[in-house]
Every structure is written in C-alpha cells, then in structure tokens.
Amino acid sequence: MKENKTIHIALGSNLQDRKKNLQTAIKEIANFADISKKSSIYETEPVGYKDQGKFLNQVIEIKADISPTDLIIRLQEIEHKMGRTREITNGPRTIDLDILFYENEVVETDSLTIPHPRMHERAFVLEPLNEIAQDKNHPTLNKTINTLWTSLK
Q1: Other beta carbons within 10 Å of 38
Q2: How far apart are CA 99 and CA 142, in angstroms?
Q3: Could you give the domains of the chain?
Q4: Catalytic residue positions?
Q5: In 3-state terms, what secondary structure has residue 57?
Q6: What is the 3-state secondary structure (H, E, C) of 99-111?
Q7: Would you give per-residue pLDDT tens digits along the chain (153 residues)?
Q8: Which terminal residue of the chain, N or C, has fewer Cβ atoms less than 10 Å from its own Cβ?
C-alpha cells in the first residue's frame, strides 16, 4: 500500500532565468510527487560567497511515497539535469534543492542530514517555509517554524 510522506523542500536559483529554473524544478519534482503547497518566491542576497547575483528562493511541500535516500538522489539528478555545478561552496547555481523536513523524522547519514542542519539560521529558508508551514514543529529544536522565523527576523 502506498504511504505518502509529507516533505518540505527549499529551492534556490541565481543563474540564468531564475524564476523559470524554480518552475522547471517543481515540474520535475511533480513527476514523482504531488505538490501540495508552494510558497511565494522571495528575492534574497547571497550568503557566504558574496560575489554573485541575488537568489530567488521558494519552499514547497510535497506528498510522496519515497525514502529520504531515494529522494536526495532524485533531487540531485534534477540539479544535474538543470546544469548545477558545485565548483564554489555557496557559489552561483542554476538550481539548489534541499530537503528541509521529511515528515518529523531525523535522518543522519554520511550524505544526508534531515532536518536541514542550518535551516533555522537562514531567512531565505525560514521566510518561505513560515508562509506554508508556520505551525510545523522542528523535530530537534522543538520550536515551531513561526517561532524560529520570528526570533531570526
């Protein structure tokens, strides 16, 4: 029996047609998941490596019957297909897809950490996430997204 999981994914782009990149990534994700919620699109300054253009950021909620490991593989395949390269840490990218939450599970492997370990420090993640999941409780910090967003602002 199919058991859909509720998953939150952050999207970011600062190369080429940024809005189209977000839309294309969402269409690709829709090939294996139901898109249940989409935040507005936010334009943000880069974090870390500053010598690059502004980002467009968005968060989506999906429902899918997929393991965390299979999901990260699918997301990385989409990034690769869309021309993502990883030459500079926090550098420019056509698309960046990060798993924020996978239900309320905590996952720690060599290649994957869920919830995303720095999401609570990043306005470009918390603001759109707060728009679509403000009452969601962060499973390791034990605070709602709205509380995290309010304390960061």
Answers
A1: 17
A2: 18
A3: 5-117 (3.30.70.560)
A4: 84, 93, 96, 98
A5: strand
A6: EEEECCCCEECCC
A7: 578 999 999 999 999 999 999 999 999 999 999 999 999 999 998 887 667 789 999 999 999 999 999 999 999 999 999 986 666 565 578 999 999 999 999 999 998 999 999 999 999 999 999 999 999 999 999 999 999 999 998
A8: N
